[in-house]
Amino acid sequence: MTLNLLLFLILAAVAIASALGMLLSRHALYSALYLILNFGTVAVFYLILHAPFIAIAQVTVYAGAIMVLFLFVIMLLGAGQLPPTKVLPWQRPVAIFLAAILLAEAVYLIFFRTSELPGATTLTPGFGDPEAVGKLLFNQYMLPFEVTSILLLAAMIGAIVLTKVEKK
Amino acid sequence: MVPIGYYIGLSAILFTIGALGVLIRRNAIVIFMSVELMLNSANLVFVAFSRLYNELNGQIFVFFVMTVAAAEVAVGLALMVTIFRAKHSIDVDQMSSLKG
User: Fold this and answer.
1) For chain A, first and last CA: distance in Å?
2) In this predicted complex, what is the ipTM?
3) Which of A83, A112, A136 is the last residue of a domain?
4) Which residues of B touch A30 (CB under 8 A)?
5) Element (H or E) spanning B77, and its range?
6) Which B residues, 11 through 70, put their C-beta within 8 Å of a C-beta on chain A?
7) B32-84 pLDDT, tens per residue?
8) The domain B4-90 is classified under which CATH number: 1.10.287.3510, 3.30.70.380, 3.40.50.2000, 3.40.366.10?
9) What is the pTM of this model?
């Protein structure tokens, strides 16, 4: 139990540190690399929570495909670092104030509840296996799965149409 | 399993950092990455509750959220390339052409 807690705390520290690194990096390229580290730690959390299929999907889809797309666009545009411009002076303090309120509300709701959250139930054998996930996905969630393919097709066509250079 | 409150707390912190990133950064790509961070923190809670209640439905939802995030990133980055072509900058403060 204490070992689990220690593992959780170390991973949480890495996740929060990499998220802050993403937020505070001057160059967008460093932000992207910190975000990949963050996605990696979240994938380890998924493994701890008995979700191996989601963990691998996280690494391949998020840390792999999506972040490669981000890095590619940052390097293509060469816009990792913006030239300094006139900024609104009140914007940053107001943003930090609002974020502090959001966090305070969340902490209040989590730690000062009247009712107790339930403990973990025992897992059925094979919980979270690719086999179990696939069975649920292709039986109960068949229609949403098919709709997803239409969404991806629409996104693909949209990306091609948006980036097409119009010939005058 | 570590108490569920810890996972919700971690997720809330990550979500707040993501929201802060959307608010204070000017680089549109970094704003996009902050949105990804927020989606990811929501996914973490989905998986944690899926483990808590011994229900696989939460993991299926994470799968769908990932698909939507992938579609969103593809279209969003295409938009950003188009904006960069037109304005030679992806500073969100510069995108004020519609302002009267």
Assistant:
1) 67
2) 0.91
3) A83
4) none
5) helix B57-87
6) 12-21, 23-27, 29-30, 32-34, 36-37, 40, 43-44, 47-48, 50-54, 56-57, 59-60, 62-64, 66-70
7) 999 999 999 999 999 999 988 888 899 999 999 999 999 999 999 999 888 88
8) 1.10.287.3510
9) 0.90
